[in-house]
Design brief:
Layout: E1 4-13, E2 16-17, E3 21-22, E4 29-37, E5 42-50, E6 60-61, E7 69-70, E8 79-85, E9 90-100, E10 104-111
Length: about 110
């Protein structure tokens, strides 16, 4: 059975597009954790997928998050987990509106 060990696409950031994480063939279940550090009062994150890590076009938003996630929900060290089933090429996190309030976010991907 293929697995994907915890891999960070974003680590303690307030802005930016994360590193693309290649999902191994055979992995059909993903959990993406959004982890806050410190006080977060605003900002949004989009979880995205594409056929490959080097895909140069516009990446697609992953459903069910298919839109911006309010990261203020992970203020104070909280975690928000998103679960996905399917066939994936690559996934990443992208801060679509800067994280504010002094804290940061981390986005980790795990698969089985």
């Amino acid at each position: 059975m293929a697995t994907l060990a915890p891999t960070y696409t974003l680590a303690q950031v307030t802005t930016g597009t994360g590193t693309a994480v290649q999902v191994p063939q055979g992995v059909s279940q993903l959990r993406i954790d959004v982890i806050g550090t410190g006080t977060i009062s605003g900002g949004t994150l989009v979880l995205e997928e594409a056929p490959s890590p080097t895909y140069p076009g516009t990446w697609s938003a992953l459903s069910p998050s298919a839109g911006a996630i309010a990261v203020s929900a992970v203020s104070g060290g909280a975690v928000q987990a998103f679960h996905f089933l399917g066939v994936f090429g690559a996934v990443r996190g992208r801060v679509s509106s800067n994280v504010t309030g002094g804290g940061t976010i981390t986005v980790a991907v795990v698969g089985a």
